[in-house]
Amino acid sequence: MKRQLFVCLCAAVLSVAALLAPATVLARQKTSFLFIPLDNRPVCYEYPVRVMEAAGYKIYTPPEKFLATRTTPANTEKLWDWLEHRAEKVDGAVISTDALIYGGLVSSRTHHTPLATLEARVQRLKNLKMDANIQFYGFSTLMRTPRESYGNVEPSYYSDVGPAIFKYSQLADKSDVHAESLLEDFVAGTLERNMAKSHLLDWLERRNKNMQINSELAMLARMGRFDYFAVGKDDNAPYSHTHMEARHLTLSNADVSATEFQVLPGVDQLGLLLLTRAANEVRGVTPRVCQLYVEGVGARTVPQYSDQPLGTSIPEQIAAAGGTIAQDPAHADVVLALNTPADGTTRDSTDPSNQYFASPANKRYIANLSHLLDQGANVSLADVAFSNGGDNGFLNELSLWGCTERLSAYNGWNTADNAVGFAIAQGMLAATTPKEKQQELLRERILDDWYYQSNVRRLITHDLEKRHLTAVKYNLGPYKAELQRIVQKEMERLTDNYPITVGTTFTVTFPWDRLFEVRIENLKTTRDLRSAARLRILPDVPVFKE
């Protein structure tokens, strides 16, 4: 009886204290998350933080100097120390285990760390002391299997033998599913004989370590160390080592609930996807997402760098973010608009087919989007008709209809899975993101994914190839300052063409000293976009000058 009375008195005191506590302190306790990103690329580090903070959440991250760059692994000991001795009281934590175990994404593909050392770091994660009330989320990667790779983000030999390794990987996956034919057996043997055995053994040894560590991380999820854990499939294909390993990992954990553990397509989007899940769980909401495909192959599209159709992968990402499927826009919290290739074949945004005209199907689809926007729908657009950038014709038509500015979010960067994951997350977060903040984030992606990736990057790439400077794409070196000036000038010219970016100022830099990604900084708007006149845009391709 005394114990019950004591508990009641304590509860009453705590309730009074809560009422008297400053509102700002309570808000911080309810809305703060700890985040260790995969590396320091803007899409992994800065952009997720900006998206979450725009939605009203406080995000604590380690100093950037501790994180991995393209050429330098993360300072894992500093990251561990920061995690173990963090001072902030947070409501949830999202961590990249690759950052803590390998030192980042590139390092996970190139390291020579003994398995015992890697396993000791997994054990350190198991023993990590955290407040029982903190929701704990983690994500790792399955090593990718690219068709080819340049720019020192794989072992150095991959530039020469990457295609052969990829072919070997395809045959290995096929043989794992069903017996190889005599021809396939012959080809596999030929590939092995024509690759340096040391190269193949090095690649397989690192993959085996990666698979072992992911199996141990999945076991931690099974034991309840994480409230949710995701393993991301880095760039892969329907037949590849990544696809094969994902199948094994999924089967060995088939009895673990998808609310606790998933193997997902893509990697770079997982930080924001899990932060969104954390936010949804704090708010106690399960957003309903309606998928709306453009005419064509749609859900049956298997994008570049993926091993499964969008109709399978998108529901998995919605679930990972803490959402559920809605069957029609009228009963959805988020309309996920999906611009997919009509024939189901995705090409890079720099492909000559990415022209400034929209198909009749695209025009009909945009008319439908316009109608939904008129009704006040929360529309988040995943532009995945091309990889690594936006669809020129679709986006030009979208602007002509005056729809771009009315979207809650736009994403067309990197792989389809990356863009879809961000679009899902931002669509879910739109409920607590002020419109002006949505517009700011929208402009950044338009500048990056459309103006730069689909247009300026294409022109610079073409010019470098004509000048026999193809290698510069992967390491800008002494050309960096010159290319930065050209990119700035051409992007500023495109900015004046569309109402969404008219009057916007910014600076562009190359964070990883390669053409593949840019950082948009100092983004400001000096003009009220609502007063910007709708412009009729003709196919106007920026000209790269010698």
Strand order of the largest sheet: 2-1-3-4-5-6
Beta fraction: 5-15%
- Nearest-angstrom radius of gyration? 24 Å
Q: Taking all residues together, what is the mean pLDDT?
A: 89
* Distance between the amino and carboxyl termini: 87 Å
Q: Please identify the structural class as seen in this structure.
A: alpha/beta
How many distinct beta strands? 15
Q: Strand count, sense and closure of the main sheet?
A: 6 strands, parallel
Helix content: 40-55%
What are the low-pLDDT stretches, counting only 5+ consecutive residues below 50?
A: 1-29, 529-546
Shape: globular
Report the total helices. Answer: 18
Structure description:
It is built from 18 helices and 15 strands. The protein is α/β, with parallel strands linked by helices. The N and C termini lie far apart (87 Å). Helices cover 46% and strands 13% of the residues. The strands form 4 sheets. A 6-stranded parallel sheet has the order 2-1-3-4-5-6, with helices on both faces. Strands 8-7-9-11-13 form a 5-stranded parallel sheet, with helices on both faces.
